[in-house]
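Case study B.
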Amino acid sequence: MFDTLFRLERNSKDALYVQVYKHIKDSIESGKVKAHTKIPSIRQGAADLGLSRRTLENAYSQLLLEGYIYSKDRSGYYVSDIGDSVISANTHETKISFVPKPVPNRYFMGVDHFDFTAWRKCYDQVLLYENDKLLTEASPQGEYELRKEIAEYVLQARGVHCNMDRIVIGAGVQVLLGLLSVLLREMSIRSIAVESPGFTEVQHVFKDYFLDIKPIPITGHGLHMKELMKSKARVCYVSPTHQYPTGAIMPVSGRVELLRWAASVDGFIIEDDYDSELRYSGRPVPSLQGLDSGDRVIFLGSFSTILLPSVRISYMILPERFYRVYRGYMDKYRQTVSKTEQLVLAHFMKDGEFQRHLRRIRKKFSVKHGIAREALEKRLPEGIFVEDSSSGVHIPLRFERPVRMEELVEKCSAVGLKVRPITEGLLMFNFAILAEDKILEASDKLAELLEESFV
Amino acid sequence: MFDTLFRLERNSKDALYVQVYKHIKDSIESGKVKAHTKIPSIRQGAADLGLSRRTLENAYSQLLLEGYIYSKDRSGYYVSDIGDSVISANTHETKISFVPKPVPNRYFMGVDHFDFTAWRKCYDQVLLYENDKLLTEASPQGEYELRKEIAEYVLQARGVHCNMDRIVIGAGVQVLLGLLSVLLREMSIRSIAVESPGFTEVQHVFKDYFLDIKPIPITGHGLHMKELMKSKARVCYVSPTHQYPTGAIMPVSGRVELLRWAASVDGFIIEDDYDSELRYSGRPVPSLQGLDSGDRVIFLGSFSTILLPSVRISYMILPERFYRVYRGYMDKYRQTVSKTEQLVLAHFMKDGEFQRHLRRIRKKFSVKHGIAREALEKRLPEGIFVEDSSSGVHIPLRFERPVRMEELVEKCSAVGLKVRPITEGLLMFNFAILAEDKILEASDKLAELLEESFV
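Model:
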């Protein structure tokens, strides 16, 4: 496995585990190592290379998360099939370069996007007239007032049917996935299928709760169903409305297929409705939960992305079988969101301010997206293309000429342009944080820096 | 193990697992089963009794948490030594009855205890003049402004020496212990010693992160050191300022012994500084962290207990070795506390409002405690005694005559008296939620209900 020519460089700016990771990744991508080949165990690899097991573990984790290798229970690690049949539609995506900061910075907003006056009015309401409620601890599941508003909102906006009793509130999607991991184990479910590539921030949680992660390649239609079957997982995590990092939307055929799969294995789907509210053209994409007649979808939503980045309120909607297990857990874990902020948000929603806010940011993003897209299409150097996208806060740029990515990212950051590399051939450009009258200038600058960065 | 006379009652108001739990507990307490006897595996016990493994697991978990049994790696479960030598000082505490709601309700406060005007002023400051800060996501570690205030506060109030870089903020002690569990595993630490009896809410977290929990009996001086040594654990969790549920304070000799232990095993101590701020007589008890010269204490503090029950802000202070591991994790987990509330609290502390608040509630609790104690001492029926306590919001009542506890708790709850049973011989009475002029009346009522509940 480890080429005799493979030498670790102690003075490299890459950490040792990154060097190991890159070496294995290159061997797989170049086809030097065939699919389903067994690779050395962590112990053996560490011995071969004279490194600590920790270093090997880190390298293997990254490879697992990105889907280059897979593990079989008690048998070891094997090279994944990343062959052309699987990801043929997006060949440029199979070459995933190491992204140093795996947490996407999805929580930025322009200064003109939020109505602080209306928000403060809700605080006043709570702090002046309802402050007796603040003298007792929050309900472990979340405040009644907020769950009621969320139930109405998800029905109207996302076609999600739910009883407010099934809503659980928590300080971020990671907190809720932690609780969910505990519930999965209670239900004797030990492994979970995830999109590959996908949200590493979600996978950290599953991993830290010792769930066995099964990365499933994504195709143009959603998850690669054969691989999903093969994985033997009964639960999968997907973000069908806005697959991270590509922003792809799972077509309804893929959704239906996924629901059929869940029914056939008596399984469940965790639907992270990430960024669904940020679609600013076309019709809203229906939620999986709304399509589901079998009570097999756990729906996850968050206010951090769309309301205010500093607000940490997310929610999940549990199918009945999960809810029953959760009831036994309710007393064990305290609520993580401030009661004040829950009540404030409930007022904001009840007063119609949240809907007004959504309309406002959708409009703003749509205008900005139009300006940025047009400007980039005119200015981009040859070999770089604007990919289709009609949601979110980023414009995806596809490279068909090699670019010195790290240098590019650094230069952008130095002049205040927010970009995020996803693969060697894909870069996300955040237009949403820019004021409208700065977008032309920013697009010019980006085009210039791109030109400078060709290899 | 399972007496041939042991019959499960399907119609009992006790759940099946509670019946199993009680049966085993009684066998151990009565001496029918000797210390270090191996008990059936979960699988075997389930087969013997014709119950699900889940039921047995629940019963064993409860017994483990309360220290009646212990587990050995890969070998199974054994009866703990609960003999007189270990807990001789508190014999009435060895008879721990099943407490249906294991989460202590420590977060109640009287309506006159909090200055909402000052609090709201801090919100205005943030929402009006610093709202640009709310447009970006919170720092994963916690806001600079708040960490700065906490560093000053813990030094002045608790003698804790720390650099603000070492402070990590989270939405409650459970969130921080979850992160800590991940760090412990990163450091290849797989087991943790905890006080027995102790905070079940803390133990759930360790358990859900698959740490092997070693319950160590408490003595008059702190942890039973021989048992701690025997456990082979390298990390222990203690609440030296206010051991839950007894409220006992670990004497300095016990603290020094614990620090010596940590140095001798190259280990660490997690110090939960629970309720230290609520001492209203005598001098503050020094923190373990302040006594420690070896950088071996993780200090945990929370604002929920003392500030406002609805606020979910806790913090931990990491020794350098933990901090280095944490650095690698920072990007993986997002901050769980709302940035708004962090900044508001930072203002509240900076303006001196937090100190004023502490002085106010200490004074109020001290007055109320005096009234309640005096009233109860006059009115309590024979065989019930007020135990010494000079902190917290409860007066412990010790019973030397058998009492129908469940009935008593129900009756108290029906008339609005907050009591919490700890063991068959110990009941905590919350005086702090009562208005001053209601305490005499409440004490009368409590005395009356106690009289009615004698067996």
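Chain A is about 40% helix and 15% strand. The remaining cases will be described in the next quarterly update.
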